[in-house]
Amino acid sequence: MDTEQLLRLLPLIAPLVVIQLGLMLAGLLDLRRRERTRGPKWLWALIVVFFGILGPVIYFLVGREEA
């Protein structure tokens, strides 16, 4: 892939990168503040970091334990 092709794809890729980083940061900050989760916190941190956009979404839907 040459530079010209990369520059053409940048407007499509940049929003996905921003969404991914925002969700990951929000998930990790919430995980840090929360006293209890459904499962070990270290496992949820790995899921949030390594499973792309789906990791934080899964954490927010399944991993949080409401007090």
Short summary of the structure?
With 67 residues, the chain is mostly helical. The protein is built from 3 helices and no strands. The protein has one domain (3-63).
Largest sheet: none
Query: How many beta strands in the DSSP annotation?
Result: 0
Which outline best applies?
elongated
- Termini distance? 50 Å
Number of domains: 1
Number of helices: 3
Mean pLDDT: 93
Based on secondary structure, the structural category is mainly alpha
- Write down the secondary-structure element order: HHH
Kindly provide the radius of gyration, computed on alpha-carbon positions and rounded to a whole number of angstroms.
15 Å
Description of the molecule:
Helix content is 76%, strand content 0%. The protein has 67 residues and is mainly α. The chain has one domain. The chain is elongated. The model has no long low-confidence stretch (mean pLDDT 93).
Architecture blueprint of SSEs:
Blueprint: H1 3-33, H2 41-50, H3 54-63
Keywords:
mainly alpha; 3 helices; 67 residues
